[in-house]
Amino acid sequence: MTTDGSSPHPLDDAVALQRLTDDDVRARTTTAWSNMVGPFGGITSAVVVKALTEHPALLGDPLALTVNFAGPIADGEFDIALRPTRTNRSTQHWSVQITQNDAVVTTGSAVTGLRRDSWGSDEAPMPTAPTAEDLPQAAFPAGVNWVNNYDMRWIQGAVPEPTTGESDDSTTTMWVRDHPPRPLDHVSLASMADTFFPRIFLRQGDWVIAGTVTLSTYFIATTEQIAAQATDHVLATARTHRFHQGYHDQTAQLWGRDGTLLATSSQLVYFKR
Amino acid sequence: MTTDGSSPHPLDDAVALQRLTDDDVRARTTTAWSNMVGPFGGITSAVVVKALTEHPALLGDPLALTVNFAGPIADGEFDIALRPTRTNRSTQHWSVQITQNDAVVTTGSAVTGLRRDSWGSDEAPMPTAPTAEDLPQAAFPAGVNWVNNYDMRWIQGAVPEPTTGESDDSTTTMWVRDHPPRPLDHVSLASMADTFFPRIFLRQGDWVIAGTVTLSTYFIATTEQIAAQATDHVLATARTHRFHQGYHDQTAQLWGRDGTLLATSSQLVYFKR
Predict the structure, then answer these.
(1) pTM score, whole prediction
(2) B250 interface with A at CB cutoff 8 Å
(3) Residue B243: enclosing H or E segment and its boundaries?
(4) Strand (E) or helix (H) holding B187
(5) Residue B132 confidence class, pLDDT cut points 50, 70, 90
(6) The Cα angle at residue B261 between residues B256 and B263, in degrees rounded to 5
(7) Which residues in chain B (127-166) have CB-CB distances under 8 A to chain A?
(8) What does the alpha-carbon distance between residue B42 and residue B260 come to, in Å, rounded to a whole number?
(9) What does the alpha-carbon distance between residue B231 and residue B263 come to, in Å, rounded to a whole number?
(10) Best exposed site among A203, A220, B139, B185 by fewest CB in 10 Å?
(11) CA B236 to CA B177: how far, in whole Å?
């Protein structure tokens, strides 16, 4: 409950932290973010960013985050240990470890830092797309809760339905925003960078056992540029280069509707097919 | 020196390890791999892979590696601590830390694992290119040693010369192999994935202060497919999506000449301009 008695946003609820020490916080899973096994990977990424931004020794804002999904997080509490491993003048390096019942379930690392004015270039243009308002909100079959926390609108590569069939292109491009709407910040952007269903679904035209092994997200935009998106849709695109012996890569980019590249991410996914 | 009295290959020399404990090995910098400040990042990635592949508890072969360049490695010895944080049935997660004189200089994580037969697809085609033999070997100005360990042949986006000028495209595509030639393995591939000069050089047409902050490499090919490349050239391509406030992303793919996608990588780079 928030101070005015209303329920918190599902994202804020899922990243609520209880501080144990400077370096350790406790969080818990929420049913709203459950995936096929354990919670949605994006919310794990988001709760680490939340913990980073609340760490008393934080320098700057998030530049890069890598999370490795070592084992499924069971329903209930889990502990996040964030340790600043090296603090430089303008960058700070962090080790990340999530444990649950004394088992390591997630490892990772992060880099935070100060930004400064420099030459810049928005080299990669945002893909052309119909406006979000002109596209229907995607519907998903029941059973996976986390998708209900997003308003997704397919531009290319919709999640397969029983009649869809195979595809020779792993690309999904979509408009995505939190549902209900919530002003964009590093926390929600970290989660959004993982909202692409596994690319193997698209190629196979079918739901397949699959999960992220490791996920790296780079925050290219400033805090102000992220905040400027407010509750607007973000244009997100992802693709795979190769599927081989149970693993595939995925690279993704997320733009603000104003054409600002907010974040890029890459992940390695395992699949069984 | 090797057992027959010949000098070892510069790459093997740079990744030679002295075992301290199961989890700890000692290595040292070599002048052949020096960069503008400290050693070339690729060789740091490679020495971690070497340490992984020699760890007595290793399961499978490298799937993913993230290294964060926390501070420059000074000339001399450094210690690599590799700790298996979680071992599953088919995957194993590792924490990586390099220290020198009690300071953390590099952090990271790795995933190793067993592969199994699955459906597969080489979705992204190798860029079309003239054969390596039809292109001249790239020349670099003196001062940065590591480039001399590679035979690079530009297809697109050569390293800028004083008269080159700015470019509106950050893409470099090249043939690259170890110089002198050395059979490809995970160790050399890890280093090769970082052989792109900083993309900011290309856009600015100038050498600029720049360095990798974090680098993630995914090994998509099997050990056999990597070994099958032998000493042949690899086709490598990299680009940036956005340069902003002192940082830019880079995504890269590396193919065997036979069209096999061997690895993908992404990195975040800082620059001053």
Answers:
(1) 0.97
(2) no
(3) strand B243-244
(4) helix B186-192
(5) very high
(6) 100
(7) none
(8) 21
(9) 16
(10) B139
(11) 10
A103 touches chain B (CB under 8 A): yes
Q: B87 CA to chain A: closest CA distance, Å?
A: 8
Give the integer Cα–Cα distance in Å for B85 and A176.
34
Task: Write out the E strands in B88-208.
Answer: 91-100, 103-113, 150-156, 172-178
- Bridge partners, A112 (sequence order): A62, A92
B-chain residues within 8 Å CB-CB of A125?
Answer: none
Q: Look-up: residue for tokens 């200089």?
A: B105
Q: H or E stretch including B53?
A: helix B41-54
Residue A106: per-residue pLDDT? 98
What is the chain A residue with the closest CA to B103?
A: A86
Determine, for residues A107 and B118 on separate chains, whether the beta-carbon distance falls below 8 Å.
no
Collect all residues of chain B within an 8 Å Cβ-Cβ radius of residue A118.
243-246, 271-273
The dihedral over CA atoms of A151, A155, A161, A166, expressed in degrees to the nearest 10, equals -150
Out of B64, B107, B120, name the one closest to residue A109 (CB).
Answer: B107
Helix ranges (DSSP H) in chain A: 10-14, 41-54, 186-192, 199-204, 223-227
Residues of chain B contacting residue A251, judged by C-beta atoms under 8 Å apart: 251, 264, 266
| B87 CB within 8 Å of a chain A CB | no
Q: Is B63 on the interface with A (CB under 8 A)?
A: yes
In this predicted structure, what is the pLDDT of residue A89?
A: 96
pLDDT digits (tens, 9 = 90+) for B150-163: 999 999 999 999 89
The SS3 of residue A54 is: helix
- The stretch B210-233 carries a mean pLDDT of 98
Q: Alpha carbon of A196 to those of A39, A255, B12: distances in Å?
A: 15, 14, 40
Helix (H) or strand (E) holding B203, with range, is helix B199-204
Q: Which residues of chain A have pLDDT under 50?
A: none
3 state SS of B121: strand
| Residue B251 · residue B269 · CB < 8 Å | no
Residue in the block written with tokens 């924490």: B95
CA-CA distance, A81 to A95, in Å (whole number)? 8
Between A and B, how many residue pairs show a Cβ–Cβ distance under 8 A?
216
Q: How far apart are CA B240 and CA B169, in angstroms?
A: 9
CB contact (8 A) between residue B220 and residue A248: yes
Which residues sit opposite B34 in a β-bridge?
B39
DSSP state of B114: -
The residue type of B131 is: T
Structure tokens at B184: 């490809």
Residue of B nearest to A259 (CA): B242
Cβ contact A71–B88 (<8 Å):
yes
Instruction: Give A135-189 pLDDT, tens digit per residue.
Output: 999 999 888 999 999 999 999 999 999 899 999 999 999 999 999 999 999 999 9
